[in-house]
Write a structure and sequence with these properties.
Number of helices: 15
Number of strands: 18
Largest sheet: 9 strands, mixed
Helix content: 25-40%
Oligomer: single chain
CATH architecture of the largest domain: Alpha-Beta Barrel
CATH class of the largest domain: Alpha Beta
């Protein structure tokens, strides 16, 4: 059959090996994405297709020739696609040869790891004496010196010294991302982890009626600044600032997802928690009392257990707000029922399962049997919404629907769902 999106902005289709009549859709929703990062990747240094560390350097060098900023900032590399594995690589020597005086900051595709050079480390005052921040890791060589790889909250040390994005740049990033979304048939997005300093530009675009896309914003909340700067939810035309975004753990690809048992390919490592339980509970409760919904990134089975248990405590004290878990990639079978008991919503990204196929087996082995539990969550009757996490994955909603209906992965076959349900999961309400 042919699944089609047809509206004022888009006329696209995808073929599915599915026995039913052709279906046309007016518009779809992406329930978990990053608008500014998409625009930045489209208009800036895009490392999405690099096949080696050397190619990453080469592309960065070409980009630097036309770059007028003081930093080289890029995003999108995925070492799973590199010919030579990332492990035990020292990045500083090769990067410093090409960029001895210009700071370099290159984020992994999932946004949970970054490669930097010595100049960036120096500006951020990161050296052999710098302690790993809570929820982060400064990867080091045998002499305890940083090797140029930063994991999760260690990246904040660099984020704190990066030049601010100008208003004009931010406008261009947002409008570029909006146009891409409309081109792919999306009419609504849930924009996650929105920086507080970006909100005035989003508000300006909303007031000027330049946001054709419906945008529901979940602002970054781990540092508690929202309590002072955004004391309540608000709506301006197509912009709805409605939720708070927290992180329980990192990503599976960078081995930062918090697991109950060790990684199969990294014994002794169970990943990283990015927030303390008391801090998470206190901030989420304060935010809920102000009227915000709560969305929390949780990848590993331990992170999902942690988040569900904190959400359970919030329900016990009377919180009625929407509580979502973003990703839900590994949920231990013993914890599934908590979604129903605590009335927790799940924002899933089925396309992750497709791109994670080989990597997930390497990281968690036979535990993939209870990973990516889309059908299990749906069968519980909870509210499940579909997204892409773009720019980490393609923003094409039809690919997400296809991943739910036809994953074509042996260990995911028991999680397939029917087309009608898949469409509902991606439908804009």
């Amino acid at each position: 059959m042919k699944l089609k999106i047809q509206n004022n902005y888009c006329d696209r289709h995808i073929h599915l090996d599915y026995q039913t009549n052709d279906i046309s859709l007016n518009g779809l929703r992406d329930s978990h994405c990053h608008l500014v990062w998409l625009g930045m990747q489209e208009l800036g240094l895009n490392l999405d297709n690099t096949k080696s560390f050397q190619e990453l350097i080469d592309l960065s060098y070409i980009y630097s020739k036309n770059n007028t900023n003081n930093w080289i900032v890029g995003r999108g590399w995925n070492d799973e696609n590199w010919i030579k594995p990332l492990k035990n690589t020292s990045f500083l020597e090769e990067l410093d040869k090409v960029f001895p005086d210009t700071p370099v900051y290159l984020k992994r595709i999932d946004g949970h790891a970054a490669i930097v050079n010595s100049k960036a480390l120096k500006i951020a005052n990161i050296n052999s004496n710098t302690k790993d921040p809570s929820g982060g890791k400064i990867v080091r060589d045998i002499n305890n010196n940083p090797n140029g790889l930063l994991i999760d909250n260690a990246m904040e040390l660099i984020n704190n010294v990066l030049p601010k994005i100008s208003d004009d740049e931010l406008i261009n990033f947002i409008l570029e991302a909006q146009n891409k979304c409309l081109d792919f048939g999306l009419i609504e997005v849930h924009d996650m982890d929105v920086y507080l300093e970006w909100l005035p530009i989003f508000e300006y675009l909303a007031k000027e009626s330049k946001l054709t896309l419906k945008i529901k914003s979940y602002i970054r909340a781990f540092d508690g600044e929202f309590l002072i700067k955004v004391p309540k939810p608000y709506i301006i035309n197509n912009l709805s600032v409605t939720g708070l975004k927290f992180y329980a753990d990192g990503a599976l690809g960078s081995r930062g997802a918090a697991l109950i048992e060790d990684y199969e390919d990294d014994k002794g490592n169970k990943g990283i928690f990015l927030i303390e339980e008391n801090d998470f509970y206190d901030l989420a409760l304060k935010g809920a009392n102000l009227g915000f919904d709560i969305g929390t990134h949780a990848i590993g089975d331990n992170a999902n257990r942690f988040t569900l248990d904190v959400y359970g405590k919030l329900r016990q004290v009377g919180v009625k707000n929407k509580l979502r878990i973003e990703h839900c990639q590994m949920v231990h079978p013993a914890d599934l029922i908590k979604f129903k008991d605590y009335k927790i919503d799940a924002a899933i990204q089925p396309i992750h399962c497709i791109s994670d196929d080989k990597m997930a087996l390497e990281r968690i082995g036979q535990r993939v049997k209870y990973a990516y539990p889309w059908k299990n969550l749906i069968d519980l009757g909870i509210d499940v919404s579909g997204g892409s996490d773009f720019p980490i994955e393609s923003l094409d909603p039809l690919l997400g629907i296809k991943a739910l209906v036809e994953p074509n992965i042996n260990w995911q076959e028991n999680q397939k769902i029917n087309l009608e349900t898949a469409i509902k999961i991606y439908s804009s309400i």
